[in-house]
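job 3f2a | input accepted
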Amino acid sequence: MIKTKRLELVEYDVNYASDLFELWSDFEVIKYTYTPLATTIDECISYIEHRIGQADSNFADSFIILLNKKAIGIIGCPLVDKERFVFGLYYQVSRINWGCGYATEAATAVINYIVDNYPDAVIKAEAVSINPASIAVLNKIGLHQTHLEEKGFKRNNLELDLVIFSTAI
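job 3f2a | predicted structure (169 res):
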């Protein structure tokens, strides 16, 4: 568990499936991600169980974001390139909690957690070019824009440019 001033970041747990259903059943929240739109709580339970099954028992890299014991989002920073020691940051926050700084607060905590455990780590993230809120979060937490990947995001016949960020310059 990671604690911040307002949040707790806890490992995935099926007990939060109904809270996460609110997140994953809202297309506005997941439209710029590869998360499938949830139509039932059972789908959320399956997704959570899948994430738990992928977890490294020695290192937590994916978390549920809790505000006052209620799940309001997810965040993770899994190792995506073992040779170069690159971690990939992702996050989703429920729409009702947009604009409150929770994504920035959680991302800062996760990056500090990674850097504390792996000082030589490189952290990368991406945001679709038409998502200024996510781009703002990545800038606020100190990641640097490295390049633009044209039509790098594809979902439901939609192709959008990706802005790629990294801790490495």
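job 3f2a | The CA atoms of residues 39 and 72 lie 18 Å apart.
job 3f2a | closed
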